[in-house]
Structure formats: C-alpha cells, structure tokens
Design a protein that fits this description.
Low-confidence stretches: none
Number of domains: 1
Strand content: under 5%
Order of helices and strands: HHHHH
Distance between the termini: 30 Å
Number of helices: 5
Mean pLDDT: 90
Shape: elongated
Largest sheet: none
Number of strands: 0
Helix content: over 70%
Structural class: mainly alpha
C-alpha cells in the first residue's frame, strides 16, 4: 500500500478535531489541537496542488514576458524578458519551482515598475495584463477551508 499524503493528512485532521480535541480538558490544548488539525488539512490541500500552481504561474509569467519583450525598448530589460520567456522548467520539485517562481516574480516587479513609469502607448495595456495575472495568481493560491457540515 502506498499512502496518499492528502488522504493521510485529512485523516489526521479528522482524528485530531473529532476524537482528540473533545477529550482535552484545557481550552489552550484544544485550541492548539484545532490549529494543528487545520494546518494538516491545508498542508494536504497544498501538497496536491503545489507543483501545478507554481508551474502554471511560471508558464503564465513567461508568456507575459514574451509579449512584453516585443514592446519594451530598454535593451537590458528586453534581454531579461526574452531570456526568461525562453526558459523551461528543469525540475518539478517544489523547491526548484519556488526558486524559479521567485526569480520570475522579481522580473515581473521590474517589468511592472517599468510599465508604470513609461508614457508609451503599450504601457497601460501591459499594466492591465500584469494586474490580471496577479489577481489570477492570488485566486489560485487561496486555500480552501474544510466543510464541517
């Protein structure tokens, strides 16, 4: 048998909240067990989706950079955008995806600052596209809460 991380963590969550917490006498202990259970639930959810979220974000940022590289005229930024747009994931390990995601986010910040400071006709549309990406990324990363009913 190969245990599924999500199933195991959800089981621990249920046991902590349904079987252990009600038998604890101190409110502090019950609160701690409740928080641990919620964290187990959230870890299970994140485990299942973490690589997909990061790979999707990285792909979307690279697409945005590919488009922006056709608009930006500043040579150093244009080169960074083109280079980032051409990258491919070399690993699907979370730590590697997080590192690439952080580097791409830093470039996104640089691009956004450039677009905000620019008077070029393309700048406002690019800013809007960046904000659309940021909203979608925030929505993707929201953690669902368990249903108790």
């Amino acid at each position: 048998m190969k245990p599924d991380v999500g199933t195991v963590m959800h089981g621990f969550f249920g046991t902590l909240l349904g079987e252990i917490a009600p038998h604890l006498g101190a409110e502090y202990s019950m609160g701690n067990v409740g928080i641990m259970g919620m964290m187990m639930y959230m870890v299970a959810e994140e485990y299942d989706r973490a690589a997909d979220i990061r790979a999707t974000e990285n792909r979307e940022m690279r697409s945005l950079f590919s488009h922006a590289a056709t608009l930006v005229t500043e040579p150093a930024l244009k080169a960074k955008l083109s280079s980032a747009a051409a990258e491919k994931e070399t690993s699907l390990r979370i730590q590697a995806l997080n590192a690439r995601n952080a580097a791409l986010q830093n470039l996104l910040i640089e691009l956004q600052a450039h677009a905000e400071a620019s008077d070029a006709g393309w700048a406002r549309n690019l800013e809007a596209r960046i904000w659309d990406y940021l909203v979608a990324a925030a929505e993707r990363r929201k953690l669902p809460l368990p249903s108790f009913g």
